[in-house]
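Dataset card, provenance and construction

Sequences and ligand SMILES were collected as paired inputs. For each pair, a complete structure of the chain with the small molecule in place was predicted and serialized as structure tokens. The example below shows a pair involving magnesium ion. Curators did not alter the output after generation; any descriptive sentences attached to a record were derived from the structure itself.
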Amino acid sequence: MPARTVFTASIESVSILDEHGRFDAQLGADLIPDEDVIKLYEAMTVSRQFDQIAFKLQRSGRMGTYPENRGQEAASLGTAYALNNDDWLVPCYRENTGLFWRGLPMEYILLHWMGDERGNQIPAELCITPLAIPIGTQLLHAAGLAWACKYRKEDRLACTFFGDGATSEGDFHEAMNFAANLDLPVIFLCQNNGWAISVPTKIQCSAPTLAQRGLAYGMESIQCDGNDIFAVVKVVKEAARRAREEHRPTFIEAVTYRLGDHTTADDARRYRDEAEVQLWMQRDPLVRLRNYLTERKLWNSTKEEALQTKAKEQVNAAAKRAEEIAATPTSEIFDAMYAEIPDEVRRQRDTMRTSSLGQEQRGIEASPAPSVEETV
Amino acid sequence: MANLTLVQAINLALIQEMERDDRIILLGEDIGRNGGVFRVTEGLYKRFGAERVVDTPLAESGIVGTSIGLAMAGLRPVPEIQFEGFLAPAFDQICTHAARMRSRTRGALTVPLTLRVPVGGGIHAPELHSDSPEAFFAHQPGIKVVMPASPYDAKGLLISAIRDPDPVIFFEPKRLYRAFREEVPEDEYTIPLGKARVVTEGDELTIISWGAPVVQCMNAIESSGKSIELIDLRTIDPLDTQTIVNSARKTGRVVIVHEAPKNCGLGAEIASRIMEHCFLYLEAPIQRVTGFDTTMPYYKMELEYLPEAERIGKAIEEVAAY
Ligand SMILES: Cc1ncc(C[n+]2csc(CCOP(=O)(O)OP(=O)(O)O)c2C)c(N)n1
Ligand SMILES: [Mg+2]
């Protein structure tokens, strides 16, 4: 018998405001009201300014390693905009713009990169999990959070962000499989920025799209221009509808580009062509949106100037708050470990300033020696 | 002889071993074109080509798992895990396969791989870039664990690790990568695995350490003004019990220093071996100066956590005065 085709598939890619400024009036109709487009542009600008100031803080030794978001602002911002405020955001570390939109005060991100855990002490009502340093691990948490939403019959979903590199980790595949097979309301938002530090996406995936990976798990999968905030909002809204109404996950590949180095510890010139960077400069989501607004007479240089000043003020104020926050006592590293501190950890906490470790007589109650009668 | 940093010494060892043995291939994240995030494999991609210096997908279980396959097939893979915190996804392959293949097959299949891993704190790095997980792997029978504390040792130990017929985890203390230079012979040489180094001889007290804290111990010893024997284990598993015992019997007073948490840290094993072999020689309880039983704090507080010279100095005083 001749073999028959049992599965064929294709991946759609959505673009609404393209790199040349062309706007698809049909797809983009009634998608984002003008006043919101302006707010989104402002948010991107603040985030860009945040990168600049964070970069300077790092270079002047006032902050540790920092990963710039530059060039990728639209992906997380469009996503956060398209979701409800009680949907879970489960980020990696290149989603500042979206997290700020949700309401995360900027100093949290700064504190995190300043080596202060209080940057992760995110107010519960924001429904944001801490930045995930170990690549790909947070995807499973998103599946679990979504599972809990479904179990409780809440009208909520979980959206997790990760990079192209993360799609190589086992946890990525396990999370996709759980979400698809247990019918979980999850959005997997992959920011394919072309690089995982120095490793190009083709080493993570030989298929022409990352989105195909979702199909393999039996979930709806789509690609979009990740530098086009309209396209991002469009596909995320559809994914959110699917999650809420059908409890089905969606995989979204947002195609974007990291304009900066991987982090301040990296030098991208070692592994990628300047020509490629220049090409993507032309596709900058921020410039694209500004041109769109300017053409539509919704924006001008006066507004731009005022915005730049305001953005700088806002970020500088956040930096000031982060730098001037009162130091925590060292005892906090012990107190933070468990709901109730175990005896040994308490002993270490209380003696760390006065002793080296190990002089166990200190702090341990002497118990009376057993009498001879007791021992025989 | 050349005056090299620890990074350069490892780089040199890799070059020399790769030139000598074409079964060696390097694999890991960003080790190729980028030369590794710490530049340990700088220049090797150009020199040996993409077939022998391989940028892999971002998957630690994949890196170690395929290395096991390569090794069983007779090659000598030298995989890299970018930071010790990312060993976790590879834990399964290390402990369930690399460590067991020889005994499981009664020697029919072996896994001569050398897993290079930057380790430890003190460089202001983000979360999971500063841990000291060596005890996890020492606890797993079937795998050797090495941690050099100087450029000279790094070269000789790495060559031994690569030539060793069994799997070795080779931890590279980040804090020492560029901390100081040392004369390192151009010629190849080996330092046997399982042999500690007596860094300074002394008869009042013994300090046992490994990795980055060795340098802190040297500082503490200098300011103590006492005659202290400092032992750098170099290999954590198998432990050089003989050298430890010789010194403990001589001085009767022992301080053990490590970065990892105290609870079930290697200090406990070492103290226990000393008890087994030297009980009647001891003049004071053995003390441990270690990281605390907390997760490694973010970098603002990492220096509070790490065993710095001041805390080691206190232990020296306490144990000497006991
Ligand atoms: C499990 C794990 N392995 C390795 C690393 C080191 N590392 C940090 S970021 C990164 C690349 C991530 O690439 P990608 O997922 O594409 O995200 P991007 O940085 O491009 O946003 C690597 C290898 C890590 N943080 N976690
Ligand atoms: Mg990437």
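Derived descriptions for this record:
The mean pLDDT of chain B is 97.
Residues A 94, 133-135, 162-166, 191, 193, 195-197, 258, 262; B 29, 58, 60, 82, 86, 89 surround thiamine diphosphate (ligand 1) (CB under 6 Å).
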